[in-house]
Design goal:
Elements: H1 3-14, H2 16-41, H3 53-83, H4 90-99, H5 101-120, H6 124-133, H7 136-142, H8 147-157, H9 162-185, H10 191-221
Helix pairs in contact: 1-10, 2-3, 3-4, 3-5, 3-7, 3-10, 5-6, 5-7, 5-8, 6-9, 7-8, 9-10
Length: 223
């Protein structure tokens, strides 16, 4: 297990209640937004209309566009505030995510498109692009860079760093798979428990990204 992974784990353990509280708050907001938007996609008075993947796909895409950039941006600000022991509330973090939503949305579209193209080219280029672009949302949220500048700088800062970040993510994925297998064998893998595990996995991943962001920023600021 790498040193950065251990540091990220200790950080998550120390701040688990606040991070999970944030996730639950964002989940409640997601439910509220879903309730407000659902009538635009599914007519509640039309009893003949069945809910299927086809009917909810545009709705899911709309939620992804609205919520994901805000959630990611707010989570980044929360992690930064916890790392620096700043007294920022969850609502402050969400407000910061809302303010940077257009930039995070563009950054998300750009990075997702490039990584998707990479995965089409026999998977490995997609993994490589992921390891070179993971800094983009952190540069957008923390350093207030434009999406294009963040993309260029992410490539610059992560040169010769792909295996370093990839090793931590592989460790995290292996741990998640191992836990899921154990719970499955014990017949304890309930949907709610699986959701909690996935949320913890996502939060831990962002903590790891931030730790590597700190390392790379320190490296380039001292040059």
């Amino acid at each position: 297990m790498t040193q950065t992974f251990k540091q990220s784990y200790y950080f998550l353990r120390q701040n688990i209640l606040k991070l999970l509280g944030f996730t639950l708050l964002m989940g409640a907001l997601l439910v509220l937004i879903a309730e407000l938007l659902m009538p635009f996609f599914i007519d509640p008075l039309d009893t003949s209309q069945t809910i299927s993947l086809e009917t909810i796909e545009p709705f899911a895409q709309m939620l992804n566009i609205i919520v994901k950039p805000i959630y990611t941006g707010a989570l980044i600000i929360l992690i930064v505030s916890l790392a620096k022991t700043e007294a920022k509330t969850m609502l402050n973090c969400i407000f910061a995510g809302i303010l940077r939503w257009p930039f995070m949305l563009v950054a998300n579209i750009m990075t997702s498109f490039l990584i998707f193209i990479g995965f089409l080219a026999f998977i490995l280029p997609g993994i490589w692009l992921f390891t070179r672009l993971f800094l983009v949302p952190y540069l957008v949220m923390i350093d207030n860079q434009s999406p294009l500048t963040a993309l260029i700088n992410s490539f610059k800062y992560t040169k010769d760093y792909s295996l370093t970040i990839l090793s931590d993510i592989v460790i995290l994925i292996v741990i998640l798979i191992f836990i899921v297998l154990i719970l499955s064998l014990m017949q304890l893998l309930l949907p709610v428990l699986l959701l909690v595990l996935l949320l913890l996995f996502q939060t831990m991943a962002h903590v790891i990204y931030y730790r590597h962001y700190e390392i790379l920023m320190e490296k380039y600021k001292t040059k």
